[in-house]
Amino acid sequence: MAISLSVVLLLAIIMVVLMRSGSLKAGPALVAILFGFFLASTGIAPSINRFLDSLAESINQITF
Fold it and tell me: What parts of the sequence cross the membrane (predicted)?
């Protein structure tokens, strides 16, 4: 749950920055939000969640 909330927050920040810089207009941003909303209700959503969880776990295991 914490990972998905962090990803949502990060993507929201990126979208706001892109909209304020003029790289992304409100219309395409709304389409992207709706696409993500409807994608979350499809059968591929669990696969996307597993991929993002494994990616976050891989990043977490990196040591410097």
Answer: 29-48
- Tell me how far apart the alpha carbons of residues 4 and 54 are, in angstroms, rounded to a whole number: 12
Give the model's confidence band at 61: pLDDT under 50 very low, under 70 low, under 90 confident, else very high: very high
**CA pseudo-torsion sign 35, 41, 47, 52:** positive
What is the pTM assigned to this prediction?
A: 0.58
Name residues whose C-beta falls within 8 Å of residue 56's C-beta, 6 or more positions apart in sequence: 3
Contact 29, 15 (CB under 8 A): yes
pLDDT tens string 43-52: 888 888 889 8
